[in-house]
Amino acid sequence: MLREGGKRHAAVMKELLAALRSSMSARELEDLARELVVKRGGTPAFLNYQPRGAQRPFPAALCVSINEEIVHGIPNEEDKIIKEGDLVTLDLGFCYRGMITDMAVTVDVGKVDEKSLTLVDATRKALAAGIKAAKCGNRIGDIGAAIERTIKKAGFEVVSGLAGHGVGYKVHEEPFVPNSGVAGKGEVLRKGMVLAIEPMASMGSPEIRLKKDGYTYCTADNSLSAHFEHTILITSGEAEILTR
User: Fold this and answer.
1) Helices (H) and strands (E) in the chain, counts
2) Closest C-alpha to 86, from 152, 4, 29, 129
3) 63-110 tens-digit pLDDT
4) Is 115 in contact with 223 (CB distance < 8 Å)?
5) CA distances from 129 to 41, 124, 143, 158 (A)
6) CA-based radius of gyration for the chain
7) Which residue range forms the structural domain that includes residue 38?
C-alpha cells in the first residue's frame, strides 16, 4: 500500500507543481490538491490533523509556505498570492488505503536571484545526502550529519527545532529524525522502517518563530528558506524512495 500510495502521491505533487505560477493564490493550489488527491484514490492526510501541542486541527490538505515561511503555511485562511521571484514550498500528506506518505518540494517562481537558487539546490542535495545515509545498520545521527554537512558546506544554516519523523500509520510517528547530528549516534536504522526525511535550510538565521495562526513556522529574521521531503523505506541495501 505504501509503494502504491507513494506513486500516487508523487503524481499529485507533479501536477501541483505544473500548475503553480505567479499571480495564483495559495487557495487555488489547496483546491486543486484536494481534487487531485481524491482523483488519485487518496484522502488528504493533513486535513483536520491535530498534532500534539496544536490548539486546533490543521484546516487544509496542502501546506503552502512562501519565502520566509519554512513549513505548515496555511493556504486557505488569508489571501496569499504567489508572486514572481518567490520561493514556494508545497508540502502534502497523502493517505492511501490507510497508509500515509509525506512529501515536500521548494520551487522558484519566475526569475529568482542566484543565491536563492543555490539555497534551493543545496537543500535538495541535502535530502539526497540524508537518504544516502539512511542505510540499514546506520544510525539516525548519520542522516542528520549528512544533511547538516551539505547545507553548511553551501553557506546556509540548518533550521533549528524542526525535523523529520517516522510515518506510515500516522502522520507523525517515532523516530524523531533531526536535520543535524553526530554520525554513529542515535537509534539504529532497521529494515522496514518508514521515515519522512525533510531538510530545511535558511539563508540567514537558523532560529524560527511561529505565526499567530499556530501552524506556520518562519525564519526568525525573515530570511528565505527551502524545504524538501521524501518518504523512504529502509531496506537491506539502499533506502527506497516511496515518493519519487
Assistant:
1) 4, 15
2) 29
3) 999 999 999 999 999 999 999 999 999 999 999 999 999 999 999 999
4) no
5) 32, 9, 8, 14
6) 17
7) 2-241
pLDDT tens digit sequence for 164-186: 999 999 999 999 999 999 999 99
* Residue range 8-56, pLDDT digits in tens: 999 999 999 999 999 999 999 999 999 999 999 999 999 999 999 999 9
CA distance 168 to 101: 6
Per-residue cell: 25: 493564490
CATH number of the CATH domain containing 62: 3.90.230.10
As for how many domains the chain has, the answer is 1
Question: Do you find a cis peptide bond into 175, omega within 30 degrees of 0?
Answer: yes
Q: Which three cell numbers stand for residue 56?
A: 486546533
State how far the Cα of 139 lies from the Cα of 63, in Å rounded to an integer. 29
